[in-house]
Design a protein that fits this description.
alpha/beta; Alpha-Beta Plaits; elongated; two-stranded antiparallel sheet; Rossmann fold; 24% strand; nine-stranded mixed beta sheet; 2 domains; 33% helix
Amino acid sequence: MKQITVLSGKGGVGKSSITASLAVLLSEKNSLICVDCDVDAANLALIFGMGEKDFQKWKPIKTNEKAELNEGKCIACKKCLDVCYFGAIKWGRGMPIFDELSCEGCGACALSCPEGAIELKEVENANIGHGKTDFGFKLVSGQLKMGEAGSGKIVAEVKQIASKKGRKKDLMLVDAAAGIGCPVIASVAGSDYAIAVTEPTPSAFSDLKRALGVVNHFRIPCGIVINKYDLNPGFSKEIESFAAENKIKILSKIPYDKSFVDALVNMEPVIIQNPKIRPVFQEIAENLPKEIGIKI
């Protein structure tokens, strides 16, 4: 099974909308499984018109730890107070008090305790679920619990479950989070190809370069999609020049189209909302490397 990851660097450039419509198009002739790896704010399911009822029972997972005090062993030496970088330890009632929302589970406090009074306990920090879309393919999604950490590890777990669910599929299409943090790194790792989505603005272009830095680190071939290119044709040319200089293929230039907004409002992929836009996604599919083995 080949893995294509769609990323953007900057949020709000249309990455998830493009992922959803590309999934619908590719699923017509390829067996695929779609994966929402934006575990901090998973919303790809909404674009497919899916709700809680469309997912099988959500499974809680543990990929993080929290500090826990054994009060009987504590000698009130206060050494743990000095080592917590996150300010998760306060003093009260003659002993350390741990703030669960601030604790990152780094373990520094446990290492500093001379009596071994502090232990790291696994916590359920996310839920993972999967459901079938109306377009015949499954979507696997992870959701980080409020105040919890470990999103990169959760993404890795989401992808592992997707690999098991789709082991007989041709393709895994991954929707990464915005930015260049742990969840994006975990999304990109192991990919056969990356699609970087941007728009013709200085901030989006800057973030695109940073995102491509992650892709290049893993030596993954990639292409660029310029969304809303006609809002700033001059800057779009600058992005194209950058792509040419770095030998990166422009997979497609998508014009501004209000149907993208209408599609989000109506909770459906834009390729369904406005079939006239289908050639754009056909172009992306046709420009993917032959090594990926996409049927068009």
